[in-house]
Specification:
Layout: E1 6-13, E2 18-20, E3 29-35, E4 38-44, H1 54-69, E5 77-78, E6 84-85, H2 88-97, H3 99-108, E7 112-120, H4 129-140, E8 146-149, E9 157-166, H5 170-183, E10 188-195
Antiparallel strand pairs: 1-4, 1-5, 1-6, 2-3, 3-4, 7-9, 7-10, 8-9
């Protein structure tokens, strides 16, 4: 057990992983800290309160994506940015206290990834959003396990949805996106992922760090 501070990216089923990767605040590897059936994916860090810079947020997401797809793929419960702990003992206390909810969440999202779909119009173009939304639901909801409607933060943004999709259905979802783009060359489609399922996990960690 080390007394170094640790930054946590997410939680997976118990497994010994050690991957060289650029982590938050200069971390050079992502590895696991275990508690019974759980493993937290962590990197070493000098502070328990890392600065929320664009680079750090990008590295947080990149570590999660790497573990999500590593060696055939992993199911991972993602943590929000900023989860620093002063040592392994403190982190293991959190894993022990939250073990039931982590176990349940891992079962609920087992073998699944998050995919993002945004649809934008050209400047000043008019579109029937309700009609377009109905078409999007018809095409994509049947291939997904769950869906979240996200904020429309721009006048041009008419669709902003996150999908929880089985890994085995990823190819079918990709194909459906391609067909949608072919049928709507007047629209800009932004298709992203796979991501760890941020929008389908609701775990709040409160602990003395």
């Amino acid at each position: 057990m080390t007394d170094d501070s640790l930054y946590v990216y997410g939680v997976i089923e118990n497994e010994d992983l050690d991957v060289e990767i650029d982590g938050v605040d200069g971390g050079e590897r992502a590895y696991t800290v275990d508690y019974q059936s759980l493993s937290a994916v962590v990197s070493d860090i000098d502070t328990v309160e890392p600065e929320r810079t664009d680079e750090n947020v990008r590295r947080h997401d990149e570590v999660l994506q790497t573990i999500l797809q590593y060696d055939g793929g992993r199911t991972i419960v993602p943590m929000g940015f900023g989860m620093g702990f002063k040592n392994e003992r403190t982190l293991k206390n959190v894993l022990r206290n939250a073990r039931p909810v982590f176990r349940r969440t891992l079962r609920e999202i087992d073998g699944m990834v998050e995919l993002g779909l945004k649809v934008l119009t050209e400047e000043d173009a008019e579109v029937d959003r309700e009609e377009l939304l109905a078409e999007v639901k018809e095409r994509f909801d049947r291939i997904s396990v769950n869906v979240v409607e996200n904020e429309l933060f721009s006048d041009r943004l008419v669709i902003n949805r996150s999908y929880l999709v089985e890994r085995d259905d990823r190819e079918a979802f990709d194909g459906a996106v391609g067909e949608f783009e072919d049928d709507h060359d007047e629209l800009l489609v932004q298709y992203t992922g796979p991501w760890a399922p941020y929008n389908f996990v609701d775990i709040e960690i409160t602990a003395e760090r």
